[in-house]
């Protein structure tokens, strides 16, 4: 699976703790992240993560590009709902792309945990169905 991690500043510690707790699940998967989030995760774990730019500098858009190219299976995006983000249009565009292409996005720890447990069980066969009905593809 191809998994992306994004965390707003006040959520980075939470993301690092979460990924550390489930490091055994993430091993063997291809991982991507925005700049600082990926750096912090790699410092705390033995995981290798392809890092893009910081979110406000275009990292959210780079991850969105992977979504549009059908190159991601899951995004864990710990958002800070109590802090205005200067790059909110980029965040909205990324979430819209995930809706268009059927990419699951966890925006809080509770949802992230459900998705990671599904990965651990191998419950992502539904992705084949998403591919069958993706935008611009005739399902017949």
From TrEMBL:
InterPro entries: Methylgl_synth, Methylglyoxal_synth_AS, MGS-like_dom, MGS-like_dom_sf. It is an enzyme of class 4 (lyase). It comes from the Bacteria. Substrate binds at residues 8, 12, 34-37, 54-55, 87. One of its GO terms (molecular function) is methylglyoxal synthase activity. It catalyses: dihydroxyacetone phosphate = methylglyoxal + phosphate. Signal peptide: none annotated. The active site is at residue 60. Keywords: Lyase. GO terms for biological process: methylglyoxal biosynthetic process. SUPFAM superfamilies: Methylglyoxal synthase-like (SSF52335). GO terms for cellular component: cytosol. NCBIfam families: MGSA, PRK05234.1. Catalyzes the formation of methylglyoxal from dihydroxyacetone phosphate. Belongs to the methylglyoxal synthase family. This is Methylglyoxal synthase.
């Amino acid at each position: 699976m191809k998994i992306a991690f994004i965390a707003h500043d006040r959520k980075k510690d939470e993301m690092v703790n979460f990924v550390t707790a489930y490091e055994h699940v993430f091993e063997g998967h291809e991982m991507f992240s925005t700049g600082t989030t990926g750096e912090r995760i790699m410092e705390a774990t033995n995981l290798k993560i392809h890092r893009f730019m910081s979110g406000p500098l275009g990292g959210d858009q780079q991850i969105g590009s992977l979504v549009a190219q059908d190159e991601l299976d899951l995004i864990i995006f710990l958002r800070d709902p109590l802090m205005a983000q200067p790059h909110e249009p980029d965040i909205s565009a990324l979430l819209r792309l995930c809706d268009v292409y059927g990419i699951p996005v966890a925006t809080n720890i509770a949802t992230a945990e459900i998705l990671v447990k599904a990965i651990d069980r191998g419950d992502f066969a539904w992705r084949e169905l998403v591919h069958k009905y993706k935008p611009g593809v005739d399902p017949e």
